[in-house]
Each structure stands twice: as C-alpha cells, then as structure tokens.
Prior knowledge:
Chain A has 287 residues and is mainly beta. Chain A has helices spanning 2-7, 10-14, 228-241; strands at 17-21, 32-39, 46-51, 71-76, 81-83, 85-88, 91-93, 106-112, 118-121, 124-125, 132-141, 152-161, 169-178, 181-193, 201-211, 217-226, 259-261, 264-268, 270-276, 278-285. In chain A, strands 4, 5, 8, 9, 10, 17 and 18 form a seven-stranded antiparallel β-sheet that branches. In chain A, strands 6-7-3-2-19 form a five-stranded mixed β-sheet, with no helix packed on it. A four-stranded antiparallel β-sheet of chain A has the order 14-13-16-20. In chain A, strand 13 and strand 14 (181-193) form a beta hairpin. The radius of gyration of chain A is 21 Å and the shape is globular. Chains A and B meet through helix 1, helix 2, strand 1, strand 14 and strand 15 of A and strand 52, strand 53, strand 57 and strand 58 of B. Strand 1 (17-21) of chain A pairs antiparallel with strand 58 of chain B, so a sheet runs across the interface.
Amino acid sequence: xxxxxxxxxxxxxxxxxxxxxxxxxxxxxxxxxxxxxxxxxxxxxxxxxxxxxxxxxxxxxxxxxxxxxxxxxxxxxxxxxxxxxxxxxxxxxxxxxxxxxxxxxxxxxxxxxxxxxxxxxxxxxxxxxxxxxxxxxxxxxxxxxxxxxxxxxxxxxxxxxxxxxxxxxxxxxxxxxxxxxxxxxxxxxxxxxxxxxxxxxxxxxxxxxxxxxxxxxxxxxxxxxxxxxxxxxxxxxxxxxxxxxxxxxxxxxxxxxxxxxxxxxxxxxxxxxxxxxxxxxxxxxxx
Amino acid sequence: xxxxxxxxxxxxxxxxxxxxxxxxxxxxxxxxxxxxxxxxxxxxxxxxxxxxxxxxxxxxxxxxxxxxxxxxxxxxxxxxxxxxxxxxxxxxxxxxxxxxxxxxxxxxxxxxxxxxxxxxxxxxxxxxxxxxxxxxxxxxxxxxxxxxxxxxxxxxxxxxxxxxxxxxxxxxxxxxxxxxxxxxxxxxxxxxxxxxxxxxxxxxxxxxxxxxxxxxxxxxxxxxxxxxxxxxxxxxxxxxxxxxxxxxxxxxxxxxxxxxxxxxxxxxxxxxxxxxxxxxxxxxxxxxxxxxxxxxxxxxxxxxxxxxxxxxxxxxxxxxxxxxxxxxxxxxxxxxxxxxxxxxxxxxxxxxxxxxxxxxxxxxxxxxxxxxxxxxxxxxxxxxxxxxxxxxxxxxxxxxxxxxxxxxxxxxxxxxxxxxxxxxxxxxxxxxxxxxxxxxxxxxxxxxxxxxxxxxxxxxxxxxxxxxxxxxxxxxxxxxxxxxxxxxxxxxxxxxxxxxxxxxxxxxxxxxxxxxxxxxxxxxxxxxxxxxxxxxxxxxxxxxxxxxxxxxxxxxxxxxxxxxxxxxxxxxxxxxxxxxxxxxxxxxxxxxxxxxxxxxxxxxxxxxxxxxxxxxxxxxxxxxxxxxxxxxxxxxxxxxxxxxxxxxxxxxxxxxxxxxxxxxxxxxxxxxxxxxxxxxxxxxxxxxxxxxxxxxxxxxxxxxxxxxxxxxxxxxxxxxxxxxxxxxxxxxxxxxxxxxxxxxxxxxxxxxxxxxxxxxxxxxxxxxxxxxxxxxxxxxxxxxxxxxxxxxxxxxxxxxxxxxxxxxxxxxxxxxxxxxxxxxxxxxxxxxxxxxxxxxxxxxxxxxxxxxxxxxxxxxxxxxxxxxxxxxxxxxxx
Lengths: 287, 878
C-alpha cells in the first residue's frame, strides 16, 4: 500500500512523462519454470512445467514452451508419494487418492525431465491458514464523480480472526464467475503478513472496492497459507510485475524458487513449488 | 640544520691554503681596510686569525663563536673588512660591534617571531569572512581564516606586507611593523558588479593555502539556469568533478561512486538528515541565506566523521552588522523573502529568511494525467532560516542559528508531512593570538508522518518515523609558526523512531503498531596537525578515534552466524534495560594528506583516508524519499568502513588564469548495507533480516580545467568513475544475487560538464552549461515466463544494462539593475532556458504488466523532463 504511494513521486504527478518503448534484448539459456500449488483441498493439484522464452515473445495457447514427458513426483515426509499424470503437454496433475495435503506435514517435488535432468526441492511445511468467518458486500453511490450520480461502487468485506502465534503469511486469490466458469484474477492477488493484524479480530477487511457492474455475479476468495520463503518469493513477484514503477529497480533481480538441480544445487529453476493450506469462500453479489 | 650541512660539505672539500701573504695587504682604518681574497671558500677560524695576525686588525672574538671547520664563501676580489664582516653576519650568523676601536664579534641575535591575528570581515555588512587567504608578500608564509573568520599568522619580525584576499572581494595589502604580537581585524570590500569567479573554486588555486577546499561561488550559482525557477545548491554541485546528480531533478548526489547516504550534509554544523523538499525537487537550502559552502571529497579532515564519501559544510549568513536590508525573489513555483540587520550596531545582528512554494496552485489548470484528481492535490513546503550572533568582545562571540522546513503532500486519501529542524548554539573564544576554540551545542530532528483515510474512516491510520539528535562538540585550533594543530571531541546522542502506526478509528479492529525506540551514542576525539616541512612540503596528519555505543532498552534479535540473516535464522531474542550497552564499535581513522610543491605553479597531492559510518539510510529508492529512515548499527549491522587513496596533480596555466587538476582515486568500502530486493522497510520489527551486507569499491580519474578570470570564465570537467558492489558470499543462498561485483546504482562512468559565463558588461551575465553522462545502470530481462497466468520477466543478473546517455544544455541570461549610489533597491532578473533542445532523458526503464492483459508486459521509459523549460525569476535587495 505504502510502497505504491511512495513511488508516486511528486514529479510523476505533473511533469514526468512515461512512454512505452520497444526493447530488443538478447536471450540466453532457457530455464526451467515450475508453477504449482500443492494444497490440502481434496481435488487434483496442477504443476505446470515450461521454459523461459525470449523477452517480448508472444504467447498463444499452443506455444508456451511447455516441458513435456517429464516425470513429476510429490512426496511427503512420511514416505508417501504420488507420480503425477501429464494431463496436457507440460501440465501434470496429482491424484488426491494417492496424496492429499495435510497441515503440518512437509512436501517436496522431484522432476525428471525427458533428457534425464533431475530437479528437486527442499521440503516445504504446510502451514495452517486462518479461515474467513464472513464475506459480505455494501453498495454506495460514488460521490466523487459528480457528473455521473447513477454510478455505484461496491465493497466486499471480510470478517475473520488472525491467530496470535508466530508470524503468518498469506496469499489471497480472487476469482469471478464469468462466462460459465471461475476465472482467476491474478492481477488482484495480494500477498501480506500479519504485521498489522496479528491476533486481531479483523472486522470489515476490505477485499474489493470498485465500480459496480450491471449484472449479478459471484466472487470466490482463496486464502492460502505461505511459508516465509514462499512469501518472500510472492512478494518479489508482486514487486516485479504488479508494483513495478520508475523507482522499483531495487526489486529487479534474479528471482529463483525452491527447485534446484539435484547434481548442481546452485542452479535453480524459476517459479516455486508452493505448499499451502487453503480456505475458500464464495459470495453472490446482487445488482 | 644549516650549520650541520655546512660541516658535511666542509668534509668534502679540499683544505684551503690561506697562507699566501703576497695577495693580501692592509690599510690603516680598521673597517675600511682592504683585504684581497683569492679563494672562493675560506675556513672562518683561519680567516680571522689571518686578519688579526697578518693584517693586524683589532679584532676580538670568543673561540666558541666559530665552529671548527666552518667555512665562508667569497668571490675572488678585494673586500673591505666591513664587507667581510657583513658576509660573516649573513652566512655564519656572526655579528659585530666596534668598541673603542676594537671590532668585537658576537652571536647575531635570532630574529623573533610574532603572531598577527584577528578577524576578517566584510566592510559593508560587518559579517565575518570564512576561508579568506592571508599571505605574506614575497614569501611562502600564509594561512586562511577559519570558519568564523579568525586567522593567526606567525612570522619573523620586521616590516612586512600582508595581503588579505577572498573571492568576490578586493584584495587588501597591509604594512605592519612586526615587533610584537599584533591583533589586526581586517575589513574587505566586496566587488559590487565585478567579474565573477567560476562557480567551482577548486582547491588548486594557488593563492589558497589550505589546498583541500573546494568551494561553490554563491553569486555565480544564482545565475545558473535551473528548472525550478530558483538556484539550487545541491544541483549546482554537479559541476564539481566527482560529484554526480543521479536523476534530472529529483537528485540524490553520489560522490566518487558512493551512496546517497554517504554524504555528510551540515548546515551550521548540524546534520541535515533529509536534504530535499518535494521528493528531491528542491534542496532544503535556501540559496539566499547561504554564506559559504565547502565540499570535501576524498581527503576529509579529522574533525569530520560519520560518513564515507564526502562532507558538504554549509554556513548560513549571520546578518548585516551595520544596516538593515531586505532581499527576496519571486519565481514561478516558489518565492523567498529575507531580512537582516543589526540588533546592536557592530555587536549583534540577525538574519531571517522565509521561503514558500506554491506549485499546487497550478494543478487546477493541468489535465488529469495519472488517474489522480489534481485539483485535490496539495503539494507545498516552507522553510525558515534564522540566525543571530552577538559579539561580546573581541575574544568572545555567540551564534545561534536555526532552520525549520516542512513539506505537505496530500492527494486523494493519502497525506504526508515531513520536515527537518536544526538548531545550533556556538560559542567562539579566542584565548590568545594562537589559540582559538569553538564549542557547539546542536539539536537536529527529522520527522515524517503519513496517513491514509478511506470513505468510512474505518481504515484510517497514520504512521510516524523520525529521529532526534543531540550533540556537543568542542574544537581547538592552535596556530604555531610551522604547524597548525586542531584537536577536539564530538559526541552525538540520537534517538531513532523507526515507526509507529496508529489506528485513527476506535472501531478499527486492527492493531496499533509501535516499533521500539532505538538509542545510540556516537562520539569521537580527533587530532590533526598541518605541518610545513621546508618550503615544498605540506603534510596534514590527522587521526580520529570514533566510538559507537548502541544502547537499550530494547528487545533485540540474534541471528544464526554463518548463514544469511532472514526470518528463518533468528535464534533468540534478548532484552536490554534502559541505557544498557548492547553493542560497541570503534574505529581508528587516519587522515593523511601530503602536498608537494614542484614549483610555484605545480604541485602534487597524495592522500589516504579512512572513514567509518555508524548510521545508514534505509531506502529502496535511489533518489531522495520522504520515507527517510536512518538506522543505527546494532548487534547485527556493522559499521561501514571506507578507505580511500588519491593522487592528484595541480597546475595553473596561461599566466595564472586557468587552473588544471587531474586526480585519481581508489576506494574500498566494507559492510555496506542495502535493502534486500523485496525487503520490507516499513514498520518491520525484523528489519535486519531484510538487509544485506556487502562491499563496495570505486575508482576513477577526475579532470578539471577552469578559466577563472576575465570576462569569459569557463569550467570543463570530465570524470571517469566506476562504482561496483557485491554482497557477502553467504547471501548467495538467497537466490537473488550473483557473487561477483556488479555495477552499483551509482555507477556512472563518463561524465562531462561544461560551464561558460560571459560578462558583456559588469551587470550582465550570459551563461551556457552542458552536461553529458553515461546512462544509469539498469536491470533488464533475459527472457520471460508465465507464472500463474502472469507474464514474468526473467532477470539473470543485476545492473547489466544501461539507460541511454544523459545530456542536456541550459542557457541563462542574468541582468542586474543599474548601479546608482542614491538608489537602495537592487533588482536582478534571470531568464533561463533549461533543457534547450528538449532532450527526453530517461530516468528509468522498467517492465510492467500491461493493464488488463496479464499475458503481456510492456517496457516503460520514464523521463522527468521531456521538454524545454523556460523560467524567469526576479530577485531584489534593498
């Protein structure tokens, strides 16, 4: 919150100028990218494997540079494991019958690529997550826009209790039900810790504050627990993408995750094998 | 010494044969008797005995008067006895008297040395002039007045002529018969509409005795083009070689590749903790009240400490001792008004100045550009500078000076207020003509409050950070004929307020949060001696012993040694009582500066410096930010220590009109603190876990050519400086660093600046300045990937790329009102064009997710100025 404000330096307010430019940058060694959350939800978890591409490369559905035909195994610290099934090229899913996340247990991933490279992660502990007690909304006229008095805003609030124990880290993911399916709004993700709310009964926590649409719709919130490492990773993801501004160059650094090459531990993959407990809440908003 | 030398020489020469009576004959009158000398060198004893025995001169002397084998030189010719005796006096220090017809030889009495001391003042205002040059005519002897205008010069007796000079003032020659210690206060007259000096008064001006000064000429500074409609002190420093302004306007200064927080910025000795207004747009220094600015880059004297890179020592004007005056200026975005005058004529005076910006007035007329309702935005600041001084008598003087600045920034739901306050009470005491002391009591404070409110007021909060500084220092200067000794102590007690968050709505369920106050004592003792060795060598030896006590009460965190500090490696917490010592650090900091004069116009300078820094600015931006949090060293964060070597060659060319200097330096800093990428600097209880320790090194060469006299003055400086950093190897485990040195954010290799001023008439000045710099370092992606539907840039290193080069041309024309004895009002206009050819210099380039399209990023080039900026300002004085 404050970082965004601080970066809005005065100069950008009235004489600074921004322009979009074309960058032609050299492209070196493609790297493995691991994306996926292993959770305690009783449904299949997806791990996606891709490789980096040249900057400014235009993706489409078929050319995401997927890593196909890999063997992906998720293990817990008690010797249980699941070999994931490659559902579509580069996308591997778990079978909840074999392995489901349990809070307090530690999980790791092992990936063997087609050419025999083995990538592993250190075990990540599944931390508990605080649940949402209630999710509700209010609608009010948008007073600031005098020319369009008919414009409304709505806010979605949460009431919940933040446990007073060690520092907790959270990831919030919002989805809207749209065109017959749940669509995740990654730009709306938030990552935070309990610095300002430790042990509090959090009342009317603002989740969404925006102009109203014309029809009814549904909002779904996933609140995930994060390990300190995963929090640090997500925080940098946010800094590098969502909070990038003219002063944020400090955050523009190599961002490697917890997966590394087994025989060369200094060589890290991008992305993160995330292990989280999750709490899910759905709200229907009437127009 | 000289006698010893002569003895040595003597052993090398052939024995002289004096017994050659044919060549010598005598006359009657003792002193007029003629002696023919046919050798170039004579043994004195033999000569005297020859004069007595062979020529029969009535001469008497004690045998101890002449040393064995002591010789004297002559030309081969006839000498009178008187001439021989004169040579004896000259070459061997043997004097004579004629008593009852007998010539009696005796030891020539040694010339006594006496001290001339006093204060150098401005003849119109009665204000003291710091760093004026006081030089003995026709000799190497000289000194400079100190910060308070006091000087002390010890010279041999006799009739002497002394020249007093200072930039912008007429030289004054004083003839004095030096036969006792003399107190002489001098008043220099300013050159009214004179030819100005170059803005950068470099240390290589040979008239300047204290060679390490680099000064800015305030008069010239005021006529430089600027983008904000008024002269800005910190921005003008970019004409100094080795000093670079990182961004176009919102500049943080880097000196010789050092960080923004490595510059010690002093206003009347008080540390200014945030030197900018409006996020770097303006500096906090109102140019109308500045009397003098000095910058030390590499060779920092031992009486300064606490920062690695530089010292910028700024002195406020004291106020006219004789008459009342007002001055001011009206600019497009800020105006100033100042008053000064005597409280008691020639005894006490005051100087008061007020500055206010009103930039937000224009916001109503600007288009809504960044999704912000500009009409609802308030951005402004004010400054007050005040100083009074009272001259109790010739030996005692008191100064009280104060500064207060305040910034307000309100937009939409967010508001922020911040400011510095400094106050200094100083007491000068002159014990005698050789011993001067200054005692200062200083208070300085920085505070920032920001807050946010939402529609319902439920999530309203405010946050406060700041620090308070209490300081006592005392410094003595002891002037001897060939030494100038300075010694003293300095103690600073600081309280740091790292953050406090207050919830403003009582129904708000979230917590208040207050990070514990931190306290520390930074103290030092120092001793330095400026020694002249012969006529060619000046050696300045200094030593500073600095100490740092980090004190309770506080609950502190310990981290596991040998692994990176982060939240997972905290081992335990320990509670300390109030004022209990948590951690102690100390450093011995030698400061050595050697100057070797090749001849009158050329000299070489060598220096070595060690400096320690016990507080760090925690910032994740590279330009100044109001969120200006200083953090003391503690059990986890060690002091930064820097060492610097420099070697310089200085000369003047073209009949002393042009100074040329070439300097090279190498510096190495350890325990440099940086915020980890993504680190949280706001209200973070475990901030140490988000900081990384590293090392820095920088090296470079600096060339300065300045033509300082005449109607055309110009300064050209070119520097090549590299600044590199690396993090301590154990942080490699954090997966965001590479081990090797990488170019730091302050790595700007090439910088060329040129400044030309033409005074067509004494009251007009046309000036052009041009700056070229390498682009700043930049991290750009080596590829990209998708992480949960978001396109992520992939960075493999840090600062491997650069922004496009920076260049900019500015011109200005300044004109002063006609000189008229009967008119008190003096006005001057400055018309300026900033960024003449509208260069769109990049401040940064960054990659950002496209609005509404998660699978697309875009590269954005951000420039502070993309157009030409004309400005007009009018200043007046009466």
